[in-house]
Amino acid sequence: MATDPNQPLRYYGGLGVIVFAIAPPLMLSLLLSQDSAPRSVVALLAVGIPVNLVAVYFAVRGMAGSVPEAAGRRVGIGLALVAVSGVLMLGGNALLR
């Protein structure tokens, strides 16, 4: 049985997805706790948080996958979803301010 040389990359990429899926919603939630924050940021969170949850799901499935090609593809999908939701949430917040 051959070992997969990309497994550490998948593992650390998946951990990166999880960290970057938690950081933007946390930052926007802290922003909403201020009185001067626009309330339209709630709409960004309502769209961004489910996308981040799907990204975490794909990342965890990719980290624990036994077929290297499919697992790598899942981590890649998770990375792309986190990038899209990060641009949506943080870029949308910058446009609203």
Automatic annotation (TrEMBL):
- Segments crossing the lipid bilayer: 12-32, 41-60, 75-96
Taxonomy, superkingdom: Bacteria
Provide the alphabetized UniProt keywords: Membrane, Transmembrane, Transmembrane helix
Record bears the keyword Transmembrane helix: yes
The protein in question is named: Uncharacterized protein
